[in-house]
Amino acid sequence: MPQASDNSINPEDAAEEPASDLSGKAFQEQAAESSDVDVSSEPVTPVPSLNPINREPGKPFYRRNPLTVAFSILLIIIYGLTTFSTNFSGPPNLVVALGGFYPPAVQAGEWWRWITATLLHGSPAHLFNNVVGLLIFGNLLESIVGSWRLFLLYVLSVLGGLGFSYFFLPDGMTLGASTIDFGLIGAYLGLVLMLRYRYERQTFFREFRGALMFVLLFVGWNTLESATINLWAHIGGLLAGIIFALWIGLRGKRSALPKG
């Protein structure tokens, strides 16, 4: 009876060779796929710092914050014009006549007071406090959210602050840019809190402590210096800033999620 030769294992070897080739091909495809994933993966966007120190030191301040600088200069010019043309130490109706936010006048159809009230200030100290607030917190936010979004925050802060004054202080007179200041404060604190999920724990608490320190110093100084404060206008501006921060923070969170 013929015995099987050693060559009888050749068919099995032949059957194994395609399998070896197939496994090699699959390995190459898998390596290519993993390579494609590595190449196409987008780099993680760094978290923008909300620290008030060393904001883009390579650029001049007015280049980093065009809206903040322009609006601050506008407030100073308007105060100078109104000071030379009138006397703010006169009777209160003089300030109202210039465009202060006075709900009875607004109800009578003088809608422009929603705009002019923010541009007027009653004293050099009043103007100084509000301009300092704009420069501090505008510097923190404009390079992060951009000039157009910062302008939107201005509008929302004015509507929120004067809107609260309209409903909760119906016989009072309001003027000054402090509603915008408190809108900036609300947005600043809100953004720090909204971005906490992208910080390490230690980094987040360091950022938040710095933010809170600046806010408390500004609010404390503004409160001690000003004899009369429209608390409702400040609350309305602050809430508008927080709402703005929620919108910006949620948009940033969605953009950080993986695609597909």
Describe the structure.
The protein is mainly alpha-helical. Helices cover 72% and strands 0% of the residues. It is globular.
CA-CA gap between termini: 67 Å
Please compute the radius of gyration using only Cα atoms. 31 Å
Strand content: under 5%
Low-confidence region ranges: 18-23, 34-47, 254-260
Topology, element by element:
Blueprint (H helix, E strand, L loop, with lengths): L9 H31 L20 H4 L1 H20 L6 H7 L4 H5 L5 H7 L4 H22 L1 H22 L9 H17 L6 H25 L5 H26 L4
Task: List the keywords.
globular; disordered C terminus; Rhomboid-like fold; 11 helices; mainly alpha; 260 residues
Quick rundown:
With about 260 residues, this protein is mainly α. Helices cover about 70% and strands about 0% of the residues.
